[in-house]
Design goal:
The protein is of the alpha+beta class. Helix content is 17%, strand content 28%. The protein is built from two helices and seven strands.
């Protein structure tokens, strides 16, 4: 991974999906907290240097492997398709085309920082 690389804390791929940002990190250069859903689950995003200081470990090269799979339950096939379309329009890449397995429907995309997001219908 390019050592000068720092992921955007306001990654434009995920902003259109409707997440809000936790106000505690509003003006921070070291963290961004994405509030997901009504339960206010927080997904934290950090620049590589900050994350590395927490983990005391090398950072995964997301072009070579997967560091995390974030899964966001949706209510319908339409919501899956809409979220995927918004992610792609914002620069994301589809890694899992929409598919119906009978008991579930889902799709997945990769954001501009290389994180993988899965959207199954709950």
């Amino acid at each position: 991974m390019d050592p000068s690389y720092e992921p955007s804390l306001t990654n434009p791929t995920i902003r259109p999906l409707g997440f809000s940002f936790h106000p505690r990190h509003h003006n921070s250069n070291d963290a961004a907290g994405l509030l997901i859903g009504d339960s206010k689950v927080i997904v934290m995003l950090f620049p590589e240097s900050t994350f590395k200081s927490f983990t005391k470990n090398d950072i995964a090269d997301t072009k070579q492997g997967t560091e995390v799979l974030l899964s966001i339950d949706t209510e319908s096939k339409e919501e899956v398709d809409q979220m995927l379309e918004k992610a792609v329009q914002a620069g994301g890449t589809i890694y899992g085309e929409p598919h119906d397995q009978g008991w579930t429907y889902g799709a997945g995309f990769i954001d501009l920082d290389g994180h993988r997001w899965k959207m199954p219908k709950a």
